[in-house]
């Protein structure tokens, strides 16, 4: 399978997150050419900071390969890893990360900084970005547009409700 094939699997995971109202980010972990773990963002559902797709897929990967070291793995994720996830990637010794869309607000694999290639750490990661970038980016753009529209609609309904309750007869 190619990087694009694995990214399609990560996108399928992101769509699962979207169906739950989560930010649509998905991740797939490949060990020696075989998918050993898949996950998607569950931060809202679990209400835990570390419930990013990458963190969840790393935990599942540790269980699958029965080691905290994921030295023969490639991590595929639809969005550039944040600082927390980049740190976990380094700690797990993942040698290669492939991501879809860049994250100009929190990306730590090239956008804001590149923690994954910082020579001060004892482990550096090969980073490949922009794989199916347009598809991955559209998932997020559509999600946040819809979220803004829902919030705007809720605000309008709240104002209408307030006016109805506070009308003097």
Automatic annotation (TrEMBL):
<feature type="domain" description="CMP/dCMP-type deaminase">
    <location>
        <begin position="1"/>
        <end position="110"/>
    </location>
</feature>
<keyword id="KW-0479">Metal-binding</keyword>
<dbReference type="Pfam" id="PF14437">
    <property type="entry name" value="MafB19-deam"/>
</dbReference>
<protein>
    <recommendedName>
        <fullName>tRNA-specific adenosine deaminase</fullName>
        <ecNumber>3.5.4.33</ecNumber>
    </recommendedName>
</protein>
<feature type="active site" description="Proton donor">
    <location>
        <position position="54"/>
    </location>
</feature>
<comment type="function">
    <text>Catalyzes the deamination of adenosine to inosine at the wobble position 34 of tRNA(Arg2).</text>
</comment>
<dbReference type="InterPro" id="IPR058535">
    <property type="entry name" value="MafB19-deam"/>
</dbReference>
<dbReference type="InterPro" id="IPR016192">
    <property type="entry name" value="APOBEC/CMP_deaminase_Zn-bd"/>
</dbReference>
<feature type="binding site">
    <location>
        <position position="52"/>
    </location>
    <ligand>
        <name>Zn(2+)</name>
    </ligand>
</feature>
<comment type="subunit">
    <text>Homodimer.</text>
</comment>
<keyword id="KW-0862">Zinc</keyword>
<dbReference type="InterPro" id="IPR002125">
    <property type="entry name" value="CMP_dCMP_dom"/>
</dbReference>
<keyword id="KW-0819">tRNA processing</keyword>
<dbReference type="GO" id="GO:0052717">
    <property type="term" value="F:tRNA-specific adenosine-34 deaminase activity"/>
</dbReference>
<comment type="similarity">
    <text>Belongs to the cytidine and deoxycytidylate deaminase family. ADAT2 subfamily.</text>
</comment>
<dbReference type="GO" id="GO:0008270">
    <property type="term" value="F:zinc ion binding"/>
</dbReference>
<keyword id="KW-0378">Hydrolase</keyword>
<feature type="binding site">
    <location>
        <position position="85"/>
    </location>
    <ligand>
        <name>Zn(2+)</name>
    </ligand>
</feature>
<dbReference type="GO" id="GO:0002100">
    <property type="term" value="P:tRNA wobble adenosine to inosine editing"/>
</dbReference>
<dbReference type="InterPro" id="IPR016193">
    <property type="entry name" value="Cytidine_deaminase-like"/>
</dbReference>
<dbReference type="InterPro" id="IPR028883">
    <property type="entry name" value="tRNA_aden_deaminase"/>
</dbReference>
<feature type="binding site">
    <location>
        <position position="82"/>
    </location>
    <ligand>
        <name>Zn(2+)</name>
    </ligand>
</feature>
